[in-house]
Amino acid sequence: MFDWNQYLLLAEKLFYLRENEEFLGLKDACLRSAISRAYYAVFCVARNYLIDKKGIEIPKQDTHKFVREIFIESAIREEKIVGESIKQLWGKRKMADYEGSLTVTEAETEFCLKKAKDTLSLIMGFSK
């Protein structure tokens, strides 16, 4: 079974590769890809938590919205926090993946990496 946390590790590597000589000219692609992978690490771990720990069936359509809303609407404070984090990261991921005219900054990318790391820790804490 694939460990979705590896997407965050990849995101962190992409962030650091942005300054590597071999990646000259790919800085923007590294930053955009790092944000995208950070989001998917959180999304997939959260989705699997809902399936494996809560027994929730995830629909094939509007999956991302469904997952984040389940967390946002939870009565459990930590799950609400996860939902809000997913919502923030989803917005950043959409911008990074689809808005070619907008500039992705290192600060935004660092924010996403930290948000993803903190959110994954939170999920792992209550999924035990």
Question: How would you describe what is shown here?
Answer:
The protein is mainly α. The chain has helices at 5-17, 27-52, 63-72, 77-98, 106-126. Helix 3 packs antiparallel against helix 4 (77-98). It is elongated and about 45 Å long. It starts with a helix and ends with a helix.
Number of helices: 5
The CATH C-level name is Mainly Alpha
Give the CATH topology.
Four Helix Bundle (Hemerythrin (Met), subunit A)
Give the number of domains.
1
From the alpha carbons, calculate the radius of gyration and give it in angstroms.
Answer: 15 Å
Shape: elongated
Uncertain stretches: none
- Strand percent estimate: under 5%
Largest sheet: none
Series of secondary-structure elements, N-terminal to C-terminal:
HHHHH
Q: Give the number of DSSP strands.
A: 0
Going by CATH, the homologous superfamily would be Nucleotidyltransferases  domain 2
CATH architecture: Up-down Bundle
CA distance, first residue to last residue? 18 Å
Which class do the helix and strand fractions yield?
A: mainly alpha
Overall mean pLDDT: 94
State the helical fraction.
over 70%
